[in-house]
Amino acid sequence: MHAIVRVAGVQVRVAPGDTIRLPRLNHEVGSTTTLGEVLLVSDGETTTVGTPVVEGVRVEAEILGHARDKKVIVFKKKRRKRYRRTNGHRQAYTAVKITDIVLPEQPDRKASARKMAATAAEDTAQEQLPAEEGASAVDQTAGPAE
After folding, report:
1. How far apart are CA 77 and CA 87, in angstroms?
2. Is the bond preceding residue 107 a cis peptide, omega within 30 degrees?
3. Are 32 and 99 in contact (CB under 8 A)?
4. Element (H, E) at 120
């Protein structure tokens, strides 16, 4: 089972047991949280794509810690103009472990199919009932006598 969620402006494919890095979240280490919007969910047999989100599905995660990533060097240069600028940046991130993907409760499809078949059988049985005694089919459909 896996899902695609949008958290803090990033779309990430997650599955139970995965450890992922997300842009810094304001949660305490060790706490449990529900991740943003679920855009797609697949249970192996069926895939549900949201418009834009899948209703009733949630992704639960545990916050493992906060840290900063490796330094990224930003170097700008314009040739023959003696222009050089060096800058660095370390992006803050939150390590998150996906604990569970919770799907909404699905009604039993076989039970609902049996219920629909029973309802259809009752409808056909009511159509086949004979008309009341003393009244003809013409009297029932003709309306008021002229």
Report:
1. 12
2. no
3. yes
4. helix 109-127
The per-residue pLDDT for range 90-142, each reduced to its tens digit, is 999 999 999 999 988 765 555 555 566 666 666 666 666 555 555 555 555 55
As a whole number of angstroms, the distance between CA 35 and CA 20 comes to 12
Tokens of residue 80, six digits: 């023959």
Amino acid type, 35: L
Q: Is the dihedral of CA 103, 107, 113, 116 positive or negative?
A: negative
What is the pTM for the complete model shown?
0.64
- CB-side neighbour CA atoms (13 Å) of 74: 5
Taking only the tens place, the pLDDT of each residue in 32-77 is 999 989 999 998 888 899 889 999 899 999 999 999 999 999 999 9
- In 69-110, which ranges are E strands? 72-78, 83-89, 92-102
CA–CA dist 123, 105 (Å, integer): 30
